[in-house]
């Protein structure tokens, strides 16, 4: 226990898994926590004076199952192994931490999402900016950047790291702490010294084996150096291995991408659904036809990082257009991609010394298929495909170099032979040949002895404890020759050995242990030679990922009938026949009504959209946002045609937010998000606002909505393209009076007492909000509906402010029946109801019922 306490004291923030013989054991508080999470039985161990110590444990081979569970539950796992052979140890076996696993550094497939990167992030807040680094230890991705805080928040939301390292003793921006808490991101404090420039520089220089930071582009970049040094230190410290697969440091320029703030990412459901169960509600789910896990990750990256350079967007969309027109190439690509494994993560296993022979074999097979991908791409003309094909062609021969050494069937372990192909190594072949005749002798022993003894059921077998044996069932005991020596008795049989067998076994087993060592050496040599080429291999893997992402977008475009958008430098959105990609794909039977958008700075730049609830306002807003975004990814878009002036940011304020759990009221969230828009929108932005001002009293809400609309119209710096859906009809007069704004409505038709939603966008304002109508359709009791109509009439006539307590109180003081006793109002309401009736469609019984109801209500 003394040894345990020493190690525990060095890792106080971890759950310590302590190796004892074949078991991992946990003690004290760790045992209590782990027993609950892992479902282990808690026992106790008498620990002398300190009384009973809680204890639990499991066989070491179950760790693959238990460690990830612990990490997924938000804990850090410290793995303490015996680091010397217990047989050779004097006194207590030496033990040491061999790895620390936390959410951001786990390489275990059980908790990794194949189609999402697994990021660890480190931050270093400055006055107005923040230096940050992202690393994915599973693939070796490593990048650093510095940006204003809002841009970093956008990046944080897009990459959704699993863990964020923060320097000890530093105040963090509240928004980041809040974000981490709401997304269950582990915040790990790292001692300040690891952020010191000198120390950080050394860590980086040592890792990349460079003598100055200049070659990495970090010259003079103090904060970036500090933050990337800290993250690298943490990774190396946790993994306790080399991490040679981290081969370069990317200097990220967030300026290349459209800014998407966390609320837009969430509201537009790009890669994550608003509601966790709705996995099919994301744009990713509609566009994802990727075949490989790497391609899936790349596509996800593209979707959350739309481009803003027209040239780059066009390069991509041109490539997609070419693939869309080449179904044969698409078919070929699919076949080749299908056999390519997650090379990026396999290389990660190689670089961190975890790869087994199966991993290398998988890499070898994938490399050969990468050449096939290159061959398919070579018939295409787009410069992007040329470049990809060239990179992929460099895989030529590399796969065979691996495959010619390894067997086709491989074990999981690397120390027990069975890995190396005959013919791959002369020395190994010679060693095998030496015992070949003995092996054959054993192999043919069964047939020989069956014949000799005349026992057809005689078997020759092998087990680890007894070695080779001859098994004869008990009924044939009388046929056992004298040289057979009994070794073991089972239920129905006896097991024997002969002196000859014993001798043969000794020779084989000593030769085999030498063969296993030799195989292991050959395997390690192969692993090293693969690792030496890691940089090139990573580029091949990246080229596969990119090809797969192109493949996916092209297949989606073909299957879903998308078109290529024209993207231009400048402002304006022109969409014909646009549709919502997710709604249409999730509801194939829905007769979705396509709609147009036509906005430019010279004509209407702002749309004020009215229409009853359920008309399709939110859908129209979101589909416009998604079409613009898809165009800037370079993807084809769901429309008949689209011309999109590149936007720098998409802002959204739509729908109910899930931030209530953070203790903010809906209205507060709405205002925070709107404030962000009004502070940061530019004339190149796209702003989507849905039902602003709903969370407060009518006049408050109307006034706020009014002022926001005016500001976006009048302030040239904030002159964004804006789609503004509202239920405040009062605002339609405002939109009429503004030069760059127009009134639009989503059409509905009244049909008797029914509302028919046409879902079509038309110029002009909608004349009524139909709220009560929709409520009636939803089945609100007719008495409540009638009363609502009365109240509405009264409010409209007498201009009572429903937010004014005194006025409302006065209304409430009068008995309900008297309150609207004016014969005028009743007559008006009665007439309205009569107008809606369709006697020709009523049964006599319904007619009588209606008459009785009307009488009861209006003529008591
Ligand atoms: P609102 O924001 O006006 O309340 P929504 O956008 O939420 O309305 O749409 C309400 C419903 O109408 C949605 O369930 C959607 O499936 C359907 N809908 C919206 N737009 C269309 C359309 N263009 N064609 C067909 N159905 C639509």
Briefly say what this structure is.
The protein has 860 residues and is α/β, with parallel strands linked by helices. Residues 685-701 form the DNA mismatch repair proteins mutS family domain.
Task: Set out the fold topology.
Elements: H1 2-10, E1 15-20, E2 23-27, H2 28-38, E3 43-46, E4 52-59, H3 63-72, E5 77-82, E6 95-101, E7 120-125, E8 129-136, E9 141-148, H4 149-159, E10 163-167, H5 174-182, E11 186-190, H6 197-208, H7 222-239, E12 250-251, E13 259-260, H8 262-267, H9 283-287, H10 293-304, H11 310-324, H12 327-338, H13 343-351, H14 357-377, H15 383-393, H16 398-403, H17 426-434, H18 436-453, E14 459-463, E15 467-473, E16 485-489, E17 493-497, H19 499-532, H20 534-560, E18 566-568, E19 573-578, H21 581-586, E20 595-599, E21 606-610, H22 617-633, E22 641-645, E23 649-653, H23 666-680, E24 686-690, H24 698-714, E25 721-725, H25 731-737, E26 741-751, E27 754-763, H26 771-777, H27 782-798, H28 805-813, H29 816-819, H30 823-836, H31 844-858
Parallel strand pairs: 1-5, 7-10, 9-12, 10-11, 13-23, 18-22, 21-25, 21-26, 23-24, 24-25
Antiparallel strand pairs: 1-2, 2-4, 3-4, 5-6, 7-8, 8-9, 14-15, 15-17, 16-17, 19-20, 19-22, 26-27
Adenosine-5'-diphosphate binds at residues 583, 590, 592-593, 595, 611, 613-619, 759.
Domain DNA mismatch repair proteins mutS family: 685-701
Organism: Fibrobacter intestinalis
Function: This protein is involved in the repair of mismatches in DNA. It is possible that it carries out the mismatch recognition step. This protein has a weak ATPase activity.
């Amino acid at each position: 226990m003394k040894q345990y306490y020493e190690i525990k004291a060095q890792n106080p923030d971890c759950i310590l898994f302590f190796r004892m013989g074949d078991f991992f054991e946990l003690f004290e508080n760790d045992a209590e926590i782990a027993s609950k999470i892992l479902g282990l039985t808690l026992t106790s161990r008498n620990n002398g004076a300190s009384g009973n110590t809680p204890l639990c444990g499991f066989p070491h081979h179950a760790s693959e199952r238990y460690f990830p569970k612990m990490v997924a539950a938000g804990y850090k796992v410290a793995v303490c192994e015996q680091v010397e052979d217990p047989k050779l140890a004097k006194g207590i076996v030496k033990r040491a931490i061999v790895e620390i696993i936390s959410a951001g550094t786990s390489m275990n497939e059980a908790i990794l999402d194949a189609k999402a990167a697994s990021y660890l992030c480190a931050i270093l807040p400055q006055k107005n900016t923040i230096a940050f680094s992202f690393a994915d230890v599973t693939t070796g991705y490593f990048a650093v950047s510095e940006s204003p805080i809002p841009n970093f928040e956008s990046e944080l939301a897009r990459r959704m790291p699993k863990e964020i390292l923060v320097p000890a003793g530093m105040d963090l921006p509240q928004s980041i702490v809040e974000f981490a808490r709401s997304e269950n991101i582990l915040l790990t404090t790292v001692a300040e010294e690891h952020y010191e420039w000198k120390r950080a520089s050394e860590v980086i220089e040592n890792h990349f084996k460079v003598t100055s930071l200049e070659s990495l582009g970090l010259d003079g970049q103090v904060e970036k150096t500090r933050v990337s040094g800290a993250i690298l230190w943490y990774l190396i410290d946790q993994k306790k291995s080399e991490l040679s697969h981290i081969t370069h440091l990317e200097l990220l320029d967030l300026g290349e991408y459209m800014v998407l703030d966390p609320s837009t990412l969430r509201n537009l459901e790009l890669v994550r659904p608003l509601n966790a169960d709705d996995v099919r509600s994301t744009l990713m789910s509609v566009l994802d036809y990727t075949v490989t896990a790497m391609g899936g990750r790349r596509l996800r990256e593209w979707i959350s990082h739309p481009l803003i350079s027209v040239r780059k967007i066009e390069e991509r969309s041109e490539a997609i257009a070419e693939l869309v027109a080449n179904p044969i190439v698409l078919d070929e690509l699919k076949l080749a991609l299908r056999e390519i494994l997650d090379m990026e993560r396999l290389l990660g296993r190689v670089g961190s010394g975890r790869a087994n022979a199966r991993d290398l074999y998988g890499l070898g097979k994938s490399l050969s298929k990468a050449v096939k991908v290159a061959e398919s791409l070579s018939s295409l003309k787009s410069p992007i495909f040329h470049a990809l094909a060239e990179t992929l062609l460099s895989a030529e021969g590399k796969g065979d170099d691996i495959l010619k050494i390894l067997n086709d069937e491989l074990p999981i372990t690397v120390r027990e032979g069975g890995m190396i192909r005959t013919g791959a190594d002369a020395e190994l072949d010679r060693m095998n040949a030496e015992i070949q005749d003995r092996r054959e002798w054993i192999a043919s022993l069964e047939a020989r002895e069956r014949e000799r003894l005349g026992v057809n059921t005689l078997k020759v077998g092998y087990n680890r404890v007894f070695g080779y044996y001859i098994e004869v069932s008990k009924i044939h005991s009388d046929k056992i020759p004298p040289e057979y020596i009994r070794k073991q008795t089972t239920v129905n049989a006896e097991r024997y050995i002969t002196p000859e067998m014993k001798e043969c076994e000794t020779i084989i087993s000593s030769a085999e242990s030498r063969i296993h060592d030799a195989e292991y050496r050959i395997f390690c040599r192969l692993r090293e030679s693969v690792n030496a080429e890691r940089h090139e291999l990573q580029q091949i893997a990246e080229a596969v990922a990119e090809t797969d992402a192109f493949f996916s977008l092209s297949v989606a475009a073909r299957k879903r009938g998308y078109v290529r958008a024209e993207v231009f430098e400048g402002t304006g959105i022109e969409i014909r026949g646009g549709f919502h990609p997710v709604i249409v794909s999730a509801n194939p039977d829905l007769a979705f009504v396509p709609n147009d958008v036509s906005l430019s700075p010279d004509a209407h730049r702002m749309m004020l959209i009215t229409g009853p609830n359920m008309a399709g306002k939110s859908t129209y807003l979101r589909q416009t946002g998604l079409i613009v975004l898809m165009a800037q990814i370079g993807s084809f878009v769901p429309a008949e045609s689209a011309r999109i002036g590149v936007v720098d940011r998409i802002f959204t304020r739509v729908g109910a937010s899930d931030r209530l759990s953070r203790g903010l009221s809906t209205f507060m969230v709405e205002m925070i998000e709107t404030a962000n828009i009004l502070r940061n929108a530019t004339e190149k932005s796209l702003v989507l606002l849905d039902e602003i001002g709903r969370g407060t009293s009518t006049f408050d809400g109307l006034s706020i909505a009014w002022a926001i609309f005016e500001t976006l119209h009048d302030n040239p710096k904030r002159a964004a393209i804006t789609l503004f859906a509202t239920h405040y009809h009062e605002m339609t007069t405002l939109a009429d009076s503004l030069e760059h704004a127009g009134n639009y409505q989503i059409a509905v038709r009244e049909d008797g007492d029914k509302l028919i939603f046409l879902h079509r966008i038309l110029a002009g304002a909608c004349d009524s909000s139909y709220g009560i109508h929709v409520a009636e359709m939803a089945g609100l009791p007719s008495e409540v509906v009638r009363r609502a109509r009365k109240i509405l009439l009264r409010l409209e006539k007498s201009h009572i402010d429903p937010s004014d307590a005194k006025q409302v109180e006065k209304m409430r003081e009068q008995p309900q029946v008297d309150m609207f006793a004016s014969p005028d109002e009743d007559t008006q309401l009665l007439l309205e109801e009569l107008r809606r009736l369709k006697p020709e469609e009523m049964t006599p019984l319904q007619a009588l019922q209606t008459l009785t109801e009307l009488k009861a209500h209006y003529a008591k």
